[in-house]
Amino acid sequence: MAANAGAFIELPLVDFGQPDALLGIGLDEGLSVAGLAVLRNHSLRSELMDGMFAVCRQFFDGPEETKRAVSWPGDGRWRGWFAVAEMVDCADVELVERLEYGRADLYADDGPPPWPSEPPGLRRVWTEYYLEVEGILARLLRCASLRGRIGTDIVDAWASRHESNLSANCYLNYDVPGDLPGMKPHTDFGGLTVLAADGSWPRFEAFVNGAWHPIAFGRHDLVLQVGDLLSAAADGRWPATMHRVSYERGSEAAGGLQPRRISLAYFHIPDPAAVLPANSVLPNATTVGDYIRSRMLSY
Q1: How buried is residue 74: exposed, middle or buried, by Cβ count under 10 Å (0-12/13-18/19+)?
Q2: What is the distance between the alpha carbons of residues 181 and 249, in angstroms, rounded to a whole number?
Q3: Rounded distance, CA 150 to CA 161, Å?
Q4: What is the pLDDT of residues 243-268, one digit of tens each?
Q5: What pLDDT band is residue 202 in, cutting at 50, 70 and 90?
Q6: Where are the domains of the chain?
Q7: Which of 62, 163, 241, 270 counts the highest number of beta carbons within 10 A?
């Protein structure tokens, strides 16, 4: 996976404005190419996307003490602020700080850390954004079931009884050695990831056809990305694509010439109790929870 980044590639387009049957066909065909597609004509309002980017940027640009007040405590479910690793000589360092909350956090404060106190509108905007993406994903998954990529008997566990997390990622913006990643190469371990990005530095890259390629994001684009769980459930029809956030070509754009890159990643995790039936990829039936735990150990 050490190949240098090649040219930008055009991702398949999936039209969310089509009737369900046609959307299912477009989704199936689009994701079968490389496990990545751009969702156009989606229902997520541009002003809500702009508002989400704005409040997240305010948080990341805010005082250190405000962020540390909502730090992830180190155990329990992932929620709160995750700092950039301070050991910059560590091989596993990723030059990104994160703010992450899941479905349960929208409705209750059942343990530390709390929601940030600043900016004041963050929780409201975050919740609205999350619920809008949740609705988009529910429709996509139901359309996937029409094509047989998800069993109709378990689609409710995927679309309605999920435990998805939303992560806002903010990357450092300065010239760094090319072998230090913003995000190391990996595949997502869950269902369907929904990505949005503000700015272009450092670059999101996908490993397609034997090479790394930068992926361009329009400000109001949503990019769909297949995770390992969904790829396995779809019997390998939709590949889970290796991806990274890379500084390899950073000298021409780093050094504060652009704002720090913000990305929004909605990581879909179906009901952990749902059973994935055996197929050519999964030799034995397994629960979503067991599959996810096995993949997390390898990240």
Answers
A1: exposed
A2: 11
A3: 15
A4: 888 776 544 444 445 668 899 999 99
A5: confident
A6: 13-296
A7: 270
